[in-house]
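Priority: medium. Attachment 1 of 2:
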């Protein structure tokens, strides 16, 4: 006899909180965009397991860490570009 939720229903169960702020292309199908930015709230980001819509594997810790690092990089890059003064004539 196998584990019923997997063998019968093909459900992957994880103790990690996932899916509270799904990633989408706009506010009609998600809470955040690909960069973790919350739609309609400039400067607010989500960079944790909440942007993953459902269980993706036995232990999503590395995926969550990678997403968080990527979002942090995108935030820093965006702020650096925004902070650079415009050079006249270029």
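Attachment 2 of 2:
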């Amino acid at each position: 006899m196998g584990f019923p939720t997997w063998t019968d229903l093909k459900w992957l169960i994880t103790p990690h909180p996932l899916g509270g702020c799904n990633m989408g292309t706009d506010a009609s199908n998600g809470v955040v965009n690909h960069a973790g930015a919350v739609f309609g709230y400039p400067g607010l980001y989500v960079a944790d397991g909440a942007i993953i819509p459902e269980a993706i594997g036995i232990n999503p810790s590395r995926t969550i860490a990678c997403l968080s690092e990527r979002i942090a990089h995108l935030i820093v890059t965006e702020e650096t570009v925004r902070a650079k003064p415009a050079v006249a004539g270029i």
